[in-house]
Write a structure and sequence with these properties.
Blueprint (H helix, E strand, L loop, with lengths): L15 E6 L3 E5 L7 E6 L5 E10 L2 E6 L11 E7 L2 E4 L7 E2 L16 E4 L22 H6 L7 E6 L5 H11 L4 E7 L3 H11 L8 E6 L5 H20 L3 E7 L1 H14 L11 H11 L3 E2 L6 E9 L8 H9 L2 E4 L2 H5 L12 E2 L2 H4 L2 H19 L1 H6 L8 H8 L1 H8 L9 H12 L2
Parallel strand pairs: 8-12, 10-15, 10-16, 11-12, 11-13, 13-15
Antiparallel strand pairs: 1-2, 1-6, 2-5, 3-4, 3-6, 4-5, 7-9, 14-15, 16-17
Helix pairs in contact: 4-5, 5-6, 6-7, 10-12, 10-14
Pfam families: ATP-synt_ab, T3SS_ATPase_C
Organism: Sphingomonas gilva
Keywords: ATP synthesis, ATP-binding, Bacterial flagellum biogenesis, Bacterial flagellum protein export, Cytoplasm, Hydrogen ion transport, Ion transport, Nucleotide-binding, Protein transport, Translocase, Transport
């Protein structure tokens, strides 16, 4: 056995020493490894814990641990653990729930996935991203009819807390015509992860779905890795020529994770405390989705964005809205009226709808939007009773048809409305 080992070809193994620890960031001396590589840090009990190199400060490597509650010791041994820049992919992941490191969480045994894919994706040519010209059925009447999605589109689902984002995601999973669904549950409550898997992925949908889950109490480096792993898995299936639906819930929690890392590295805070790296991370992640002209595969992605305090001018909301191909805004006022999904049609937009819908469909959608916007613009006058019927024909029509508008937007949680049915009803009720 020893004869097969070429000792002369083996170089020295560099081992670092822990020099400082502030509760989140570990500073290591004598550890020359690239950013993204992983290391084993030996704690006070002699047990290894995994950490990732996230930056440098002078000649010291800055590491962030995957477990935040270990008893670290000054001068502890830090050993290189390889480069964590690729993830295991393959059909063995279908129907499984995994964590940010690819470990199974569902108690169904080991995962057989031998192929590898870069965690940060492969560098791409922008000309390999084909135009969005084919509609993508999401099974939600208001989305299919008024915000028609396209194959390969990136959509931001913007809402405050408790307005129905998760329910709408479940409707999309149930109604979407996708070969594979990849779901990244990042920074949510542990209870929500269990609820999502048991209710939104029940039955046959589970067999073609992959869930990457990292709850809110995990270190920020794992939350960031979860979103990147989910996107890498989706890229692998797109390379196989499949139609992939990628759901990341939520993009805001991913940005919060990058904010924690950036501030720990000493980056200056900018708007609302976000360092430049947190805002730059959003387009890097979102741009990995889309349609591939070479394979014919496509990633249609939906990113939920939490509007803190219902503030639609939040930096992450604004950054996401600027980079995606359309956004769906959920309104708390509609949810309080019992209208679900609580989609604010006036503030929502699909930038590809003109390329995937016919003229009759577009004309009916314009008619619907006109009635919706006229009512919203004059809501205060109408609610106060200051508007006198007959003063304006457009306002009279908007008031008379308000319940028709809300009935069209509303949809039962277990109801599925395909694209053809949504288009037909829209044209029948709102064409002029």
């Amino acid at each position: 056995m020893l004869d097969t080992i070429d000792v002369a070809a083996l170089g020295p193994r560099r081992v670092g020493r822990l020099a400082a620890f502030d509760g989140q960031m570990l500073e290591v001396t004598g550890f020359v490894q690239p950013i993204g590589s992983t290391a084993r840090v030996i704690d006070a009990h002699g047990q290894p814990t995994i950490a990732e190199v996230v930056g440098f400060r002078g000649d010291r490597a800055m590491l962030m641990g995957f477990e935040g509650d270990r008893a670290h010791l000054n001068g502890a041994r830090v050993e290189p653990d390889g480069f964590g820049g690729s993830v295991a992919v393959g059909d063995g992941l279908l129907g499984r729930v995994i964590d940010a490191l690819g470990n199974p969480l569902d108690g169904r045994g080991p995962i057989n996935a031998s192929a590898r894919w870069p965690l940060a994706g492969r560098p791409g040519n922008p000309l390999h991203r084909t135009r969005v010209t084919r509609p993508f059925d999401l099974g939600v009447r208001a989305v299919n009819a008024l915000l028609t999605a396209g194959l390969g589109q990136r959509i931001a689902l913007i809402a405050g807390s408790g307005v129905g984002k998760s329910v709408l995601l479940g409707q999309m999973i149930a109604g979407a015509e996708a070969d594979v669904t990849v779901i990244g549950l990042v920074g949510e409550r542990s209870r929500e992860v269990t609820d999502f898997v048991e209710t939104k992925l029940a039955g046959a949908r589970r067999d073609k779905s992959i869930v990457v889950a990292v709850p809110a109490d995990h270190p920020p480096v794992l939350r960031l890795r979860a979103a990147m792993r989910a996107t890498a898995i989706a890229e692998y299936y797109r390379a196989q020529g499949l139609k992939v639906l990628l759901l990341i819930d939520s993009l805001t929690r991913v940005a919060h994770a990058q904010r924690e890392i950036g501030l720990s590295l000493g980056e200056p805070p900018t708007m609302k405390g976000y360092p430049p790296s947190a805002l730059a991370m959003v387009p890097r992640l979102v741009e990995r989705a889309g349609a591939d002209v070479r394979t014919g595969g496509a990633i249609t992605a939906v990113y939920t964005v939490l509007a803190d305090g219902d503030d639609l001018d939040d930096p992450i909301v604004d950054t996401a809205r600027a980079i995606v191909d359309g956004h769906i805004v959920l309104a708390r006022s509609l949810a309080e009226q019992g209208v679900y999904p609580a989609i604010d049609i006036g503030r929502s937009l699909s930038r590809v709808m003109a390329d995937v819908a016919d003229e009759a469909h577009l004309a009916a959608a314009r008619g619907f939007r006109r009635l919706w916007s006229v009512f919203e613009e004059n809501r205060d006058l109408i609610m106060m009773g200051a508007y006198k019927a007959g003063a304006d024909a457009a306002i009279d029509e908007a008031i008379a048809r308000r319940q028709d508008l809300l009935a069209f937007v509303g949809q039962g949680q277990k109801e599925r409305v395909d694209l053809a049915a949504a288009r037909e009803r829209l044209i029948k009720e709102f064409s002029r």
